């Protein structure tokens, strides 16, 4: 059964119990009230009848229609009815009351059944010693009144109960409609194919009815959907990146593998060739193997940096960042004499950081090599070291043609290359900047790009506290 139906039935059962208690109490009160009224009437009439019996020996004044009056002489347990008397054929209940009244100090009143007549209310009073007046009034009118009251109560309570159940169920259905809407939304989400790489779920719980509690539930429900949307978007993006990564890695590894296979085939049939040719084939095999080894080392390093390990694969030590930059600059000048390089230190003192000097040197060498590879000969390159608050900054700037706007957001993606036409021997595999960013983040810092026409700036931020 639905919640609204159960609540409506529960409300009906509760109302029925309340109606039963109220009806019983009201009926009992009405019966008691009518019986007291009848008793008061008997008492009032007996006041007059007692005087009549004392004066004439019997009651000459006629009672109400259907009422009976009798005067008894009581001697011990003997009871004698005085005549004439207006009594029913069955006088046993009246005589019993007269006998009891003769031995009582107070007036007596009881309800008795008179054969052939019905139920009567009897009241006795002592006219004088040994003389008892007994009056009997029918309680049929009281019973009929109570029966009519019970009938009216049953009809009214039944109509009220039916109206309460019908309108209550309607009101409950209206009040629970927001919950039903959320249930339909949940069913729609359950039927939605979450395995697709969809961006967002097209369902939300709307409406303003239901009160504060339902509004809080609706807000929590929509917040949950937003979280699911974000999770699905992240998962879809991760799947796309994984597929792109696998495709790029396969492509990058396929080229050196094909070269190794080709040179191996040439070497197999080069037994009769000159020694110089064989050495040239072996050199190419070693070069392709070394290139593939570097690519695999970068992939392994990225996997270790991405893994949720307790410690990053770093060997930290107190290192002078300015000296480390100077060493990278000297190596760059020796390897790239066609690119003039300037180093500027704007820090108030030598910034000593807790870092892995080999990995940070790898980041600097990568950024400087990237500036030389992607700019023409003669392009000036500069490196600036500074301190801002609790952060050390290293800016690598070149005055080359810059990076296109459509590639700036993806320069740190793995296997992404800005110049697709550049050969791999000159342009690399596209892992350098990804490795650099992962290494910097492993030190608790970050690396950002600011590019425009005629200037490309990579800014490395490292915390002065370093990595513990």
TrEMBL record:
Compartments reported by the entry: Cell membrane
Start and end residues of each HAMP domain: 173-233
Keyword check for Transmembrane: yes
Ranges annotated as spanning the membrane: 149-167
Gene3D superfamilies documented for this protein: 1.10.287.130, 6.10.340.10, Histidine kinase-like ATPase, C-terminal domain (3.30.565.10)
Gene Ontology MF terms: kinase activity
Domain of life: Bacteria
Record EC number: 2.7.13.3
Reactions that this protein is recorded to catalyse: ATP + protein L-histidine = ADP + protein N-phospho-L-histidine
InterPro entries reported for this sequence: HAMP_dom (IPR003660), HATPase_C_sf (IPR036890), HATPase_dom (IPR003594), His_kinase_dom (IPR005467), HisK_dim/P_dom (IPR003661), HisK_dim/P_sf (IPR036097), Sig_transdc_His_kin-like_C (IPR004358), TCS_sensor_his_kinase (IPR050428)
Keywords, sorted A to Z: Kinase, Membrane, Phosphoprotein, Transferase, Transmembrane, Transmembrane helix, Two-component regulatory system
Sequence ranges assigned to domain Histidine kinase in this UniProt record: 248-466
Protein name per UniProt: histidine kinase
